[in-house]
Amino acid sequence: MRREIGNRSLMRSFSVDDVDLEDVEASKDRDRPSHFLRLPNIQNQSLLSGLAYCIASCSMILVNKFVLSGYGFNAGIFLMLYQNIVSVTIVSTLSLSGVISTEPLTWKLIKVWLPVNIIFVGMLITSMFSLKYINVAMLTILKNVANVLTASGETYFFKKQHDRQVWISLMLMVCHEFMNVWAGFECLRG
User: Fold this and answer.
1) Among the four 94, 109, 148, 164, which has the fewest Cβ within 10 Å?
2) Do 183 and 122 reside in the same domain of the chain?
């Protein structure tokens, strides 16, 4: 009974009655500022955004590893804070100049996204500390295992069904990670 009440209150805190903040169709219909700068229409935007994510993610991991380990930098949280301030400044500048559109900051938006941001900051802090002590290959292995756990959690908590191809690719990732760990132990022994 207690768990059922907790689940209802948890679902209520995640549900937004008026507007789905991530609804793509609704975001297309929103009024854009008159000074909105139109970017060229790219046919395969998902490929472009995925490629941009890969480049940004890889470069951030390598730069952070270089700064934290290469220079013996002991202020990982300060580095993370600096990077977040730069990110907010860039997004704010692009939004104010009309290149991108952002949601107006409201208490309702803050209340919805605060738990996600707390978890995100925790992920950044643990990533920063682990990057200082773990090599990039091992961190990549852990991130891939986290992807498998995330997909499993999405299935369990949100009842999202993935097709067979997704599960096959995730299992291949897990097999690949076990082979990487085994090869790493063989290199250490030999």
Assistant:
1) 164
2) no
